[in-house]
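dumping these here so i dont lose them again. two proteins, back to back, each one seq then structure tokens. dont judge the mess
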Amino acid sequence: GYDCEIELDDRSPMRPMGKPVTRKEWRFQIQGPNAWAVIEKLHGGPLEQLKFFNMSTMNIAGKTVRTLRHGMSGAPGLEIWGPYAEQEEIRAAILEAGKEFGLIACGSRAYPSNTLESGWIPSPLPAIYTGEKLKGFREWLGADSYEATGSIGGSFVSDNIEDYYLNPWELGYGNFVKFDHEFHGREALEALNPADQRKKVTLAWHPEDMTKIVASLFNPDGEQYKFFDTPLANYASSNYDRVVDAGGKTVGFSMFTGYSYNEKQALSLATIDPEIPVGTELRVVWGEENGGTRKTTVEPHKQIEVRAIVSPVPYSRVAREAYAEGWRTAR
């Protein structure tokens, strides 16, 4: 019933093939323990620290830019954007202002790895593929939409797409749920008992098992395990690896996997049965069934069970001890 317009500003192609890249907007983030000092230097004076995900404006290089209160590193930070024609000037101003604070430009491969330490699962499967209420939405979606082109990867396999759906408590968003207003899906959430839902945790993968996976790349006569890319090992739009207990029972999903250089540890973000305490050793089934699916991101391989210790969210000690209270640190 809303009267609205949506304009899609596609992200820049990873391989422009020599063609000029033009967009409507540029988008940057300024994050880290010294982020606000950099931000206020750019702005030319004090700037109000808005509540999380609130929006405002600031000044950079004589221009007004839009801001979104963020905090990917736990400390206050901003996501900022403006007209694409100004992006080089704005980027240069940010890097110059940040020199005295140790600011560096983060590469595109390192950028998503911070979520492993801070505890955000960014890509669960959209729960839109079933149900009459969403039929119109599915018919409206284009063939090039995220929901149409997305892929599922990992060792958890089910013929029922709804087995991949997750609710807010399973993703660590339970404290966002408030029943003091009307919203889509309220009835379904009211029917759930939060105490019975799976919980978000970090899984710390065993170094010996990680060594075995990596070593298989250099053993032409032995087993070949699924390639573990660093710093991010995901190989599908939505990742669902089985997490099993000592008896082989599936107790959850490992959903976002990679390597933290800061912690010197292979990690994954997972959702597991609520009664399993921190410190329990579980196993992540790494790799796909029957030698792997036909996805172009999957090479022939053998599955392996990787020992993993149930650990806190956020995993990073700095994050646990120094982050502002929020949804990542809420218990």
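---- next one ----
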Amino acid sequence: MSYPLRPVADFAAQGQRVVTLASPARLPLAEPPDRLPQRARALTRRYEASWLTASGEVESSTRIAPATALFEEAFSALARGSLVATEAGPVAVEDLQPGMRALTAEGGSETITWIGSMTLYPGTTGEGESTLTRITAEAFGANRPMPDLVLGPRARLLLRDARCRAVAGSDAAYVPARAFVDGVSVIELRPAVPVATYHLVLERQASLRVMGMEVESYHPGTGIEAMVDPRMLALFVAFFPHLARLADFGTLAHPRLTRFEVERLIE
């Protein structure tokens, strides 16, 4: 689904809080033919978010905003049905609520303070990557993952490898999940039906434990204030009302590598 192009000022005017729409029913994923006709690029998307307020209550909103990488990255790491490890046991990402405690790969647990979601539609693209990544069962070793895991287009995995030190200065780094696509055990998919994707913000950034894999929780990265138009940045920051400023995301748990840096490391 796409929406007419509007000036940024109009987006801001439409940023009022509204009732969050109900999640769609679980839908299967399927691989389309090699050549799937694509519609025109989506100019805007509907983004949904819920967050934990300072008083401990949960509030939610639905907003229309540009379909650009800046926004899409905050809503598209885990496909519907992904099981996230929490203190209460594995919970499907669509059933999580702000305030729950997620278990982390670094040890211990962190409070989920924000959950964002959007829907990918067949044949519609945005500015960012629109493909999903299916990691088949045990592609990375015993129970990693178990069973198959479908990740959203902006997911990053935690790679623990001494070779990372030469590039990232650390033995562990976050890398795009699509960097591991080999067409056999890690497969690139385009949704044949609408697919909801999600991302989570933790009180302190860490790696989520998802069906045996370690997935980066959302963090906007550093330095985006200098790279984004102030009006667009204000629209983006409005999606995170539980934070006073972007600096409140804190520091990254691990450095990040690009897809190309990873491909050079593992080739």
